[in-house]
């Protein structure tokens, strides 16, 4: 997480769009200044996710952030460092003087605490001494306590440099698909005909590659996980890794759908191991690519930068996969893109992965096996090669997404221009000469909003070389000029063309059919019979001011909010809101079920109705009640959906 530029100190409203920010007043009960107890929950959450900035001396209000200042900031900062180095308070300190920045304002001093993303060997960063109780992660709604499974996963990642070196008791050469091993050895020999490994028998050859191992202390020996995955028989692989699934799907249209015209998966019609999966899938991915005639010396070049990028993406998905995870390795080919999904999060921060030079492979033996036959980059330069080769085609920058809640990483390679012809034609028809007068970053922002359904600050920064502050100003100008509408807060802020509100969400997840991506467009149909419904939608998303205490009007057809309805809910919950303490758990759960029956409400709406903090409502009530099947999300597959809402579950509609 980079430090905040000095010029941005007073632009709090803009910072909330650019960084994962958490505002805390740090006033203390008597207004003398105190480090909030919730500070370390936010610190833990940011460190375990992608870093962030905690701003002390700022209060978040319905109208936006308000500077209140930190009384006795010296004492607050000293307390911060004392507690940061106290393992009874927090498990690991990532802070130094350079992570703290102070700025005097007319309202008082504001303190910016930049929390870096913790490295693999420091996670989980947890509050107190119990990682199972004190580990938090960040999403668009705030900080949430990690489930036991996620904490155990981080603990496992911390102690295991490689996951594929485990000796599998009872597995030997009889579990190897000999034809796969023969093909691999032939490719190895073709590349290195005089190599000493060519003279070894099969078992010793595997031993040198890390596919067969001997424990010098116990004298146990057998196939390693890497050897079985790379060369094994499918039945043997499933005996060792019951959740193992590899899946390739070629889909006929540039839309999200379950239909496919070609598929390769673990159905026992082929060996099922990783090396054969790579060979069969790479041939399918590249069979339609055009190869222009070119020579290097007197040899014809049979590959393009696109071939290289696809090879790197496919190998990356295989060698970085967490084979103990719950999801399959899934490769998707569509007319407009290539998608790669693997279980397991990146082991280095996303920024470092894209820049290159830092390597921390989850399965180092598999990585070495692929490298020995010329497949896969070394020293952490795989992602830079993908980005560089994709940029050489003037296509949109690769889209990488980490989903912490489901422990998976997704890479989408889109074969669309930064300024797709159909998007430019639409925008020129819509905005006329105004579009041509816009700057290049402004046109990229509008074209992205049209092509992908919406645009975010982070997505725009991937597509443009402009400074982050300039991109913030670009998006503000487009909103003020009526070119874009804006919704969400903080990292959840997104921008879309007026009348083209994303129904679900955009980004890499639509590649895999997990969520339907659609756009409600009243621009093209404004003269149709749906005009009345469309204009209602536009009014709700245009950013116009609402009456005091009114909730977000984005509720779906389940409940059509009106001032009277909201006031009725406020009156209904008045008694519990005015209580100094929550009361019994049963009482609060009963009230939650009551207000959520027959309607969807956002977390902010629920917190306002009950007069409680959002974090407390979410962690102590919503999450446990969802686990118990009492409450469900409107968007169950997208935990951090920017417009997530909740309703009481019924037997007919479980989550």
Estimated share of beta-strand residues: 15-25%
The neighbouring-strand order within the major sheet is 12-11-15-16-18-17
Total E-strand runs: 24
Individual helix count: 25
Q: State the CATH class of the largest domain.
A: Alpha Beta
Helix content: 25-40%
How many whole angstroms does the radius of gyration measure? Answer: 27 Å
Overall pLDDT metric: 82
Features of this protein?
single chain; Methyltransferase, Cobalt-precorrin-4 Transmethylase, Domain 2; Heat Shock Protein 90; four-stranded mixed beta sheet; 25 helices; alpha+beta; 655 residues; 24 strands; Arc Repressor Mutant, subunit A; 37% helix; disordered C terminus; 4 domains
Write the layout of secondary structure elements.
Blueprint: H1 12-18, E1 21-24, H2 39-47, E2 52-56, E3 58-61, E4 64-67, H3 73-84, E5 100-105, E6 108-115, H4 131-134, E7 136-139, E8 142-145, H5 148-159, H6 178-191, H7 202-209, E9 212-214, E10 221-223, H8 225-231, H9 234-240, E11 246-250, E12 262-265, H10 274-286, E13 295-296, E14 299-300, H11 305-319, E15 329-334, E16 337-343, H12 350-355, H13 364-371, H14 382-391, E17 399-403, E18 408-414, H15 421-431, H16 433-436, H17 440-452, H18 457-463, H19 468-480, E19 485-487, E20 494-496, E21 500-502, E22 519-521, H20 531-541, H21 563-572, H22 574-578, H23 585-596, H24 603-610, H25 614-627, E23 631-633, E24 646-648
Parallel strand pairs: 1-2, 11-15
Antiparallel strand pairs: 2-6, 3-4, 5-6, 7-8, 9-10, 11-12, 13-14, 15-16, 16-18, 17-18, 19-20, 21-22, 23-24
Helix pairs in contact: 10-11, 11-14, 15-17
């Amino acid at each position: 997480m980079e430090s905040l530029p000095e010029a941005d100190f007073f632009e709090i409203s803009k910072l909330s769009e650019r960084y994962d920010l958490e505002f805390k007043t740090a006033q203390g009960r008597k207004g003398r200044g105190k480090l909030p107890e919730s500070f370390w929950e936010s610190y833990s959450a940011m460190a375990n996710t992608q870093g962030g900035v905690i701003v002390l001396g700022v209060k978040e209000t319905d109208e936006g952030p308000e500077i209140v200042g930190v009384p006795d900031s010296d004492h607050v900062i000293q307390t911060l460092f004392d507690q940061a180095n106290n393992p009874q308070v927090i498990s690991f300190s990532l802070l130094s003087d350079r992570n703290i920045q102070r700025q005097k304002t007319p309202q008082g001093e504001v303190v910016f605490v930049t929390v870096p993303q913790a490295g693999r060997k420091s996670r989980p960063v947890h509050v107190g001494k119990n990682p199972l109780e004190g580990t938090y992660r960040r999403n668009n709604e705030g900080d949430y306590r990690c489930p036991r499974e996620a904490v155990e996963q981080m603990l496992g990642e911390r102690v295991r440099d490689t996951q594929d070196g485990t000796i599998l008791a009872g597995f030997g050469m009889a579990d190897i698909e000999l034809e796969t091993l023969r093909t691999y050895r032939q490719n190895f020999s073709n590349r290195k005909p005089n190599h000493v490994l060519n003279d070894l028998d099969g078992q010793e050859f595997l031993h040198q590659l890390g596919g067969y191992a001997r424990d010098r202390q116990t004298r146990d020996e057998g196939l390693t996980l890497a050897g079985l995955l790379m060369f094994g028989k499918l039945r043997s692989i499933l005996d060792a890794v019951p959740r193992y699934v590899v899946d390739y799907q070629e889909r006929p249209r540039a839309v999200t759908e379950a239909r496919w015209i070609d598929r390769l998966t673990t159905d026992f019609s082929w060996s099922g191991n990783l090396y054969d999966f790579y060979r069969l899938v790479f041939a399918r991915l590249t069979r339609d690519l055009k190869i222009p005639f070119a020579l290097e010396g007197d040899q014809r070049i049979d590959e393009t930068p696109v071939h290289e990028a696809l090879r790197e993406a496919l190998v990356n998905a295989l060698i970085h996969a967490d084979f103990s995870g719950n999801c399959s390795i899934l490769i998707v080919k569509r007319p407009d893109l290539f998608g790669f999904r693997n279980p397991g999060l990146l082991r280095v921060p996303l920024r470092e992965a894209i820049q290159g030079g830092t390597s921390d492979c989850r399965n180092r033996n598999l990585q070495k096996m692929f490298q020995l036959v010329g497949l896969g980059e070394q020293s952490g330069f795989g992602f830079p090669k993908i980005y560089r080769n994709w940029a050489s085609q003037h296509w949109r920058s690769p889209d990488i997404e980490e989903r912490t809640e489901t422990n998976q990483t997704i890479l989408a390679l889109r074969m669309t221009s930064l300024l797709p012809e159909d998007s430019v034609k639409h925008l020129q028809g819509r905005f006329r000469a105004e579009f041509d007068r816009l700057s290049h970053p402004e046109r990229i922002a509008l074209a992205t909003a049209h092509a992908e359904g919406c645009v975010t600050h982070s997505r725009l920064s991937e597509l443009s070389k402009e400074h982050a502050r300039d991109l913030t100003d670009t998006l503000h100008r487009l909103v003020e000029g009526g070119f874009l509408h804006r919704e969400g807060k903080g990292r959840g802020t997104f921008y879309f063309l007026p009348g083209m509100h994303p129904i679900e969400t955009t980004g890499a997840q639509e590649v895999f059919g997990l969520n339907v991506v659609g756009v409600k467009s009243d621009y093209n149909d404004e003269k149709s019979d749906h005009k009345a419904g469309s204009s209602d939608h536009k009014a709700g998303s245009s950013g116009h001011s609402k009456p005091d205490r009114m909730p977000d009007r984005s509720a779906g057809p389940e409940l059509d909010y009106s001032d009277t309805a909201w006031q009725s809910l406020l009156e209904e919950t008045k008694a519990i809101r005015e209580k100094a303490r929550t009361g019994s758990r049963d009482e609060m759960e009963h009230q939650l079920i009551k207000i959520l029956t027959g309607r969807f409400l956002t977390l902010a709406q629920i917190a306002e109705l009950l007069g409680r903090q959002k974090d407390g409502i979410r962690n102590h009530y919503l999450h446990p009640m969802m686990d118990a099947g009492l409450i469900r999300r409107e968007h169950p597959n997208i935990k951090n959906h920017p417009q997530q809402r909740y309703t009481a579950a019924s037997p007919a509609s479980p989550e």
